[in-house]
Design a protein that fits this description.
α2 packs parallel to α5 and α5 runs antiparallel to α6. The chain is mostly helical. It starts with a helix and ends with a helix. The longest helix is centred in the N-terminal third of the chain and has 33 residues. It is globular, with a radius of gyration of 23 Å.
């Protein structure tokens, strides 16, 4: 950022301005993540769980390319834009992936597969911390490669996900179906139930799918019998208030605990506690 500013304006940037730019680069990822998380339900209903994930990979590829080309383009604005797009990508993944996994998983594996998803997120954080040390990619010349590596999981998912079936629970009958590779966007309605059965047979590698069909029918009946309520009614309902408060407080506690500050500024925190810069970077690996 200092180099780009000096090239543009012929003078050194103030330290306070550098800190503001760095803060923008850090926080804009979280802003994109918030927007992506809010959009997850709409994307899932519009394009299906699998379709939404496939389209989301495009954002991942674009964001990674922008971040990787920041130094070549000599523009920190491109870094900000890339971080924002990657944030949206991660927010959508946070919403769509657990939804997809829970809907295609058998009952006896649903909880375990959900845990594996969170474990994979933690492993990804660990790998990124390891790659970011100075001996690998955390250098003045190689850091764009480190950021650009975000393209790898997006491309991998884009190649492999088409071979997976659409969630048989996708439930928006008004969607215009776009055929993606081997499978279409399946809906459990009276007209398309047979397609849902075929997807389940392939997914389970068994013809015994009646239990899943019965479960989804029961869920569909339950949804139809439930009256829709407004946000005001939800917050004012005594029977729902406790569950609502627990859910909101858990999410707020996760964010307000300061975990993001620890992740983003951990090296500085370790250095301020007395560690050398090199030791602080190695200590940073243990945070995930």
């Amino acid at each position: 950022m200092k180099d780009v500013y000096k090239d543009r304006y012929g003078e050194d940037i103030k330290e306070s301005a550098v800190k503001r730019l760095y803060s923008v680069a850090v926080s804009i990822f979280a802003i994109g993540g918030m927007l992506g998380g809010f959009s997850g339900g709409m994307i899932a209903n519009r394009f299906g769980r699998k379709g939404g994930l496939l389209l989301n990979n495009v954002l991942g590829i674009v964001g990674a390319c922008l971040m990787g080309c920041t130094k070549i383009a000599n523009s920190y604005e491109i870094l900000f834009l890339g971080r924002f797009i990657i944030g949206v990508n991660c927010g959508l993944n946070t919403s769509l992936v657990p939804m997809y996994i829970s809907e295609i998983a058998p009952l006896n594996l649903r909880g375990g597969l959900g845990t594996v998803n969170q474990l994979a997120v933690t492993v990804g954080l660990l790998v990124s911390q390891v790659l970011g040390i100075e001996q690998i990619l955390g250098t003045r010349n190689r850091w764009p490669v480190l950021l650009g590596l975000a393209i790898c999981p997006a491309i991998l998912q884009l190649l492999l996900l088409p071979f997976c079936p659409e969630s048989p629970r996708s439930d928006n009958p008004s969607v215009t179906v776009v055929r993606l590779s081997y499978f279409g966007y399946l809906l459990i309605t009276k007209q398309r139930e047979e397609e849902a059965r075929k997807a389940l047979r392939r997914l389970r590698a068994s013809n015994q799918v009646e239990e899943d069909i019965k479960e989804m029918r029961a869920e569909e009946r339950a949804q139809h019998t439930e009256a829709s309520i407004s946000m005001t009614q939800l917050t004012c309902s005594p029977t729902l208030r406790a569950a609502l408060v627990i859910g909101v407080v858990m999410q707020l506690s996760q964010q307000l605990s300061g975990t993001n500050a620890v992740f983003y500024y951990s090296t500085d925190l370790f250095m301020s506690s007395g560690l050398t810069e090199e030791s602080a970077k190695f200590a940073n690996i243990g945070i995930p």
